[in-house]
Amino acid sequence: MKSTIDDLENLIRRAQDGDEHAMTGLITIHKALIFTIVLRMTNDYDTSQDLTQETFIKVFMNIRKVKSVEHFKPWMCMIARNLVRDYFRRIKRSNTISFESIKDFHGRSNIEMTRRRMIIQNALAKLTEKDQMLLTLTYYEGMKLDEVAEVMKMTASNVKIGIHRARKRLRKQLEGYEHELLSAG
Amino acid sequence: MNSCPQVEKIVDYCLGELTGREKGNFEMHLKSCEICQRELRVEMAVENELSREFDPGFIENRIKARLQLKQTQDMRSFWLYAFRMAVYGVTAAVAAFVLIPMLLKSLLGSVPNLSQYTQGVGELLGKLAPGNMFIMVLGFCYIAVFVVSMYSLAQIRR
């Protein structure tokens, strides 16, 4: 764990000096996290790719501001979140997701699975931006409670309460779909 | 549908928020309650979906290319801004020292000597104030414009 942090710190320092290999390394490590956050919120594959790239451009334009490795991931997530917010300010947000768009970003999975994902993603889209972000960050492997709190600008205890409520609200949105959720493996 | 009173505990259970004893009791209950078992399966399905991560594919080179393009554009806009500021500066200098006195001369017949109107200010400035306060005021204005331009330039570059 210590060496991972050291590696990350080394990559950040080198990227601050303009090392392109270090930048590539940072993108490779974090691209799935940023893309997942953006995709969960926008439900659009192309837009998410574009916003993920924008996020990294903004990260590298401002990487000299990073003082400690612990804050790097939350800071990056915050940039992604702000870019998604700006994007939604520009376009009118739709909270219904089509079967095709889900199929796009889930690749070649079977129809039942795609349907299940569409149901969950539709339910998620009906939650507030804050709830979506909380659930996405919490269940994303590798995000600590403190990091989620930093991204959300909340205390760790409020994050816990928030997750709990968001999860209940998500469950409420899923009422009536239980059979379909359980039918696909 | 949710007729079991214990069903409310599912989320706490999934989030690991039940204490040891509560957890034990709930797990005992789970073994015999079909409603809670079904609800737990739904929660697990949701959790599985939420913990999925998506891969954007190989975007590293595209990001670096866009970053380079952006840096080039920023640099170009910086130099464009610097050039514009230089043009403004020269124009302000020409206006201050050549055009305005010429215009005033053609309108009034001679370059007005404002020292008579600004004698009070001149006295305050003491020996520093030259005879022609008008030129001096314009000079100060020009320096102010120059300093503000340089400050804006520094802000943009930062």
Structural account:
The complex is a heterodimer of chains A (185) and B (158). Chain A is globular. The two termini of chain A are 34 Å apart. In chain A, helix 5 crosses helix 6. By secondary structure, chain A is an all-alpha fold. Helices cover 76% and strands 0% of the residues of chain A. Chain A is built from 10 helices and no strands. Chain B is mainly α. Chain B contains 6 helices and no strands. In chain B, helix 4 runs antiparallel to helix 6. Classes of the chains: A mainly alpha (185), B mainly alpha (158). At the A-B interface, helix 2, helix 3, helix 6, helix 7 and helix 9 of A face helix 1, helix 3 and helix 4 of B.
Helices and strands in order, then pairings?
The complex is a heterodimer of chains A (185) and B (158).
Chain A: H1 2-16, H2 20-42, H3 45-61, H4 72-90, H5 99-106, H6 111-125, H7 129-139, H8 145-152, H9 156-173, H10 178-183
Helix pairs in contact in A: 1-2, 2-3, 2-4, 2-7, 3-4, 4-8, 5-6, 7-9, 8-9
Chain B: H1 9-14, H2 20-32, H3 34-50, H4 60-108, H5 119-125, H6 133-157
Any descriptors?
heterodimer; A: 185 residues; mainly alpha; globular; B: 158 residues; 74% helix; rod-shaped
